[in-house]
Amino acid sequence: MQTFGERLDRFFDSMKDSDIERYTDYWKSVEPTNKEDIFRRYLFAFMSVHTSWQNNCKGYNAIKRYEKWKGNKARLLQKIERTRVGLQNNRANFISSFSSAYWDKPSRFISPSNNQGWGEWRDKLCKKITGLGEAKTSFAIEMIYPTDAKVVCLDTHLFQLYGLNQTKHRKLYRAIEMDWLTRCKEREVPSYIARCLYWDKKQKRKNSRYWSKVLEA
Question: Are 161 and 198 in contact (CB under 8 A)?
């Protein structure tokens, strides 16, 4: 019987240098360069909670023009309700609250402070941001720093790769994250790039643009 260690070894061994380079080049090309686009990465993360990638993109497209609803929770809720992506009230409440906090002082959400590690920054953000949690806060950081981030959005699929259940084994998050980061360092691949390669392979896709194209504009 194949162990999770063997499954992981097989996946990392299967990664081609050319695919790593191709994915790295792509994600560098869509890396946000200003506070507006960084804010939008957080919006995408909020819309990714408990939904499919299709609805994630649909919901994000509905609110990415944030200047049309900024400071008006009722208008934000209306835009989210029209998408029928679920959790409308929670999403509107969480996003509205985050929007106020973000635009009050963007620097807190844009990059780690001096001498602050990636994990420490993620943990601080988790305490400041209601509605994302550990995994989705990590996802936002991954999209903001796709080739540098040293945190991992451990979703159901990665837990399954490790032979674990996300709900039952949540306490193992840090141990799994450390193992993933270590394997990525040994393979010389950014952790987010490796995660995208794994996810896209499961979706039988050759690149991320079937969903990430919404981040390009």
Answer: yes
